[in-house]
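Issue 218. Parser rejects a valid record. Input:
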Amino acid sequence: MSPLLAPDRAEIERALEDLLRRDAGARVLAMRSPVKRTWPETIELRGKRFRIAWCPSELEMRERLNEMEADADGMILLTPLDAAALAGDIVARFPRARLEQTDRWSALRSLFKAHAVDPRLAAQRWLADLLLAHVPADGYRPASGGVLDLDTAWRAALEEVLGLPEGRGDAAALLTWTLDPVGLDRLARLPPDVRQALAGRLGMEGGPAAALVLGAAVAGRGGDALAIALACGVVFGEAAPRVELRDAAVRLEPLVGGVPIDPDVGRSLAEAGRRVLDRLARDNPGASRAAEARTAAILSDVRAEAAAGLSPALQLGFDARLREAADALGRAAETGQADDAGAAWDRVREVVGHDRAGDNAARIGRLTMAARIVGWLARGRQRAVRTFAEAAAGYAQEGGFVDRARQALRGGDQLPDVAAAYSRVAKAAAAQRDAENQSFATLLKGWNQGGGHGDVPLPVERVLEVVVAPLAREKPVLLLVFDGLSFAVWRHLAETVGRLGWSELTPTDGRGAFIGAAALPSVTEISRASLLGGRLTRGDQAAERAGFAGLPSLVAASRAGKPPRLFHKADLASGPELGVDVQAAVADYQQRIVGIVHNAVDAQLSGSDQLEITWSADDFRQVSAILHTARQAGRIVVVTGDHGHVLDEGTVQMPGGAGDRWRSAGTAPGDGEVALAGGRVLAPGGATTIVAAWSERLRFAARRGGYHGGAAPQEVLVPVAVLSSGDPPSGWTEAPPAEPAWWRGAEGEPSPPRKPEVASTPAGRRKSEPRQVDLFVSEADGRGGASDTGAASQARVPTGSAPPWIEALLRSESYAAQRILAGRGAPPDDQIRALLAALAARGGRITRAGLAQALGTPVLRLAGFVSAARRVLNLDQAQILVVDGEDVVLDEALLRVQFELGGRR
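Output the parser choked on:
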């Protein structure tokens, strides 16, 4: 009982006046007071004198009543005892056999500064007494309008008595509240009948899921409430639950007060727990881990731990899904069947859609790479490779992506069975790579004997003449040579370079991106000297610098007094900032040609094999600074390598090697080797015949991180990428994304057009279960948002492939009105048609990289196009077309409603 109900003198006198008015001869008044106050010893009223007595016990009350029998004065008895606690003979001596008490409603009106009380509240005395017993130090907020209604009183009880923030009584708020033992302690100190009344009221206000939370708290399991909610995500995770889960639901009942849990209510509680765990994982990882550990114990207690994969929230569920997905990928890699690969991708998407995916980004990355490899394996060979040009183009277009994914799998996983599944995928990929490498080496042998002519691939000694010099005649050029740059490394680096404002270019004549071919053997002394000297040669850094500065084609493209300049590692300085001479040369617009040699890739081959290098632009010291300075100077950047490399993965050392991956031709080539003679062979010792390893399993040197010098495509072929941060030079245009369809998880999609036309204008530049995302997104697509409605100008949609509703939309009056409102920035209908067809083909969600490839447009131009399309499609600001992180998402159902197209057809 609240101390506020202790009567003061005025209230005692009013009660006494009322008594004497009814019975002028009355001699005793009994009133309840929770505490003793400072009262006068006597009160005189209507000529009678009443003594006031504080009676904390029944014995004290009997003594005072006995004293009154021998005294002429009346008696006012004040006691903290409830009438129900007093003996019947004592109560019988009270007027009307009742214990009077202060009017609770008057006290409540005073507390809330109200002049009236909601009749609905008057029917809930327990709530009024609860508010009176727990008045906060600074009082309650005054009732709005001077009327204390039921909602205000209930909100005050939740906020001030139970400590619920903002007086919210929904399941998520209650789960958060249970994390603080103070609130649970407040609840535990309340009388049982009040606790039950609170639970009933919360069930009405916050829903049945909220009632379960308070039921757990009332049952003394409040500290486990969040864990119980998360366990519900497993126990009620199946629409048609297996027997084990039905039994587990029964075992869960005692934890929420012994009541049966309706499956829908259990799922609602699980969703609330999921939201709370999300916040904890972000704001309080320690509490999140504790909640997950307790959930695991509860799942074990109810015997549902085997179904943990049903949970979209628990790390335990993430790990279970990861195991299932990895096992499916391992099987698909071994069978090579498209159906198995599709089933595995479904499992992978469930992992990627899990709430804890963001906390396991590196593991998701490896899982995604395993899925990509499986897609490649299921695809198989589309056609026989007949020429070395076809083999080189095939490796550049797909093989580099495959090897990048294979490298990612080297990181394995902390779960042994997942790591074992990745090994199965890697083994299958290695077998396929070996077969392709053998074919490549055979074709390389014939191409080399024929003199290594042609532009596909382009011998490294011709890169400066064919690519750099023509570009330098129009714009200043920076040649950035990464020693040991393989296609696998470049595929990763290229994505992150885009973040720095660069886009890759391709010739407009349809030849596609250039592919470089290292000199043979593929070692630095030969291949880098040949690249920088413009002829097949060998030499050190001094020879490279002299050859670069004196190459006629480069000199002809340079300004008088500003010959080509080449910088090596020692010139770059040791810190993140560039050396003064390098900085000045790159920034000098008159210096038409600058070359920089960066040794990070080749050096890492001798580094630790316990590091997983991601090869982003940030991993290369000073590269960001180099590119920034080049961008400020308006330079075109040409990125290439002198040779590639293979990584050590269970290699076997062979005797007689002159280098890491090649030997003299003293004996015939064995398994995994090829003999190369004449043509572009120029061994360090002067020999023109060598035996080189094509199998990744062979090495001739001591074991280290990686090797080069052999005849595998990973070593022989290098990218020749032309980058621009502004308008492309004449004869060049921005290249569409290079990823093959299986890289995006879209096997069977048409490849992008190989000969895109020049875009019209330049431009700047991706919760419920499952959280569907496109797992095959490139990690670092560009950012930006310039309005470029010409971005999708090259989109091609096969005849008859677009769903009928798209044509109905384009003919509708609402669409025509939207185009008028969008003004001149509205994309043409064919571009809208292509956009919608691409989205419809992928179920309404596609990555920006995937959409750019489907439309045949550079990623850099996509943001402006999508923004313009949204202005047309988002009728009345409805979110029909949205950008969700790295994905573009179409709500087809909402589009049909807004444009009155009818239901799905």
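Fixed in the parser; the record now loads. Confidence is low (pLDDT under 50) at residues 747-800.
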